[in-house]
Each structure stands twice: as C-alpha cells, then as structure tokens.
Design goal:
The protein is of the alpha+beta class and about 230 residues long. It contains eight helices and six strands; from the N terminus they run H-H-H-H-H-E-E-H-H-E-E-E-H-E. It has helices spanning about 5-20, 25-30, 40-60, 70-80, 85-100, 125-140, 150-165, 200-205, and strands at about 110, 120, 175, 180-185, 195, 215-220. A four-stranded mixed beta sheet has the order 4-3-5-6, with helices on one face. A two-stranded antiparallel ribbon has the order 1-2. Helix 1 runs antiparallel to helix 5 (about 85-100). It is globular and about 50 Å long. The model has no long low-confidence stretch (mean pLDDT about 95).
C-alpha cells in the first residue's frame, strides 16, 4: 500500500534539499551541461517545475501535458532563465503540487499520465519524489546516488524492477543487494536467467539509466542492455 501523505512529506524534504544545493550556483553554472545528454542544468530545473504543474493537472483530472511537443517547448523556453527565476519557479510549482495533494480525494482512483500510462493516484507523490531525487543527482552539483535516502533507493529499485517486468527486450534477471534482498525483473526476452548483484546505489543507477552497470557483478549470463525509461 502506498502512503501518499508520507510521500508528500518526503517530496517536500527532497525539494528543500535540492533548492538549498542549487542556491549555491550562479547564473553561469545554470547554463552548464547537466548529466543528462543535451540538457543544461537550466533544462533540468525547468523540467522539475513543469513536471510539478503537470502532476497537478493529473490530480485535478486534466491531461498531464497538452502534447509532447508542448512539453518539450516549455522546457526549452524556460531553460535559459536566471538562477533566481529558476529556483522561484521550482519552489512555487512544488507548493502548488503540495496544495493539490492536500485536497481530500479518492486516492485509490486511476489516473492517466503521459503516453497512455495509467496508475493509482496514491502513487503520484512517489513518482514526484523520484523526479526530484534523480534530477537532483542529474544536476551534477555534488549530490550522488549514494546520498539518496535508503528507503527511497529501496523503493525505486522495486519500482523499476516492476517497470521492466515482462519486457520483451529483457531476459529474466535476478537482482541482489548486499543485504541479501532479491528482486526479479525482465522475463520477456529469451535466454537463460541472469544474476546481477551489487550495492543498491549501483543497481538503482543501472536500472534508471544513470550508470552503465560496470560496478555490478554478473554471476550468470551477461548484463542486459536495458531500454530507455
């Protein structure tokens, strides 16, 4: 069961950490490349703000984005803004998301996201938490996957393992962390099962497309090439 109230609190904390860290930047630093190919730090900050507003749309029963083209255009429009404008937008859009999340609602209802993806409403705060934490790492300003909250890392590994479950391009893959916890993902591609192990941060980085998996140990088979998220 999702605890959306807990996750809303966690989103707020993650947002505050990101804003404090980003406030140490300057206008020139915002124009520098982030860790996401083709995106500056300004693109990342603009995306975070527009994603918050998009999730408000979902919570209030509207389409997440007008269109994929409009989503991309909004990010390109907002990316070059000065740091103070970027941070104010992230802060204010985050507050709008928190306000929408505080409205009494049927959190068991099904909502529609991008590209026809559907989910339960009570998973939206965790999805927002993912956006904030991973894009904080993507900014490349000293916050690493190893710095993520332990409970977040465990849940995000679970989330991504479920996302790739049955994927036609991923063979059955068993994931093991040093604490002995295992998950199974993939299963849609032919071939013998693959066993992959390593630190939780490395597994998360590989599953989320943030690391190449070279720090993982493959004891059976070959490390699968995961499709983009």
């Amino acid at each position: 069961m999702m605890d959306h109230a807990h996750d809303l609190v966690s989103v707020h904390g993650a947002t505050e950490r990101l804003l404090r860290a980003a406030s140490a930047l300057d206008n020139a630093a915002v124009t520098k490349e982030s860790r996401l190919p083709g995106w500056t730090r300004g693109h990342v900050l603009a995306h975070l703000a527009r994603n918050a507003d998009a999730l408000v749309n979902v919570l209030e029963g509207r389409p997440m984005y007008v269109s994929a083209a409009a989503r991309d255009a909004d990010i390109e429009r907002d990316a070059p803004r000065p740091l103070d404008v970027q941070l104010a937008d992230v802060r204010e859009s985050a507050a709008r998301f928190q306000e929408a999340g505080a409205v009494p609602a049927d959190w068991s209802r099904t909502v529609e996201l991008r590209n026809g993806v559907t989910d339960r409403a009570d998973r939206l705060p965790f999805r927002r938490w993912i956006e904030v934490e991973l894009h904080h790492v993507d900014l490349g300003i000293g916050y690493e996957l190893e710095d993520l909250p332990v409970d977040f890392t465990e849940r995000e590994i679970d989330f991504l393992a479920a996302r790739f479950e049955g994927h036609r391009d991923v063979p059955t893959t068993r994931l093991t962390t040093p604490d002995g916890r295992t998950r199974t993902t993939g299963g849609g591609a032919p071939g013998d099962p693959v066993a992959v192990g390593g630190p939780a941060a490395e597994l998360l980085g590989w599953l989320a497309g943030r690391r190449d998996g070279s720090a993982l140990t493959v004891t059976s088979g070959t490390l699968p090439a995961l499709p983009p998220l």
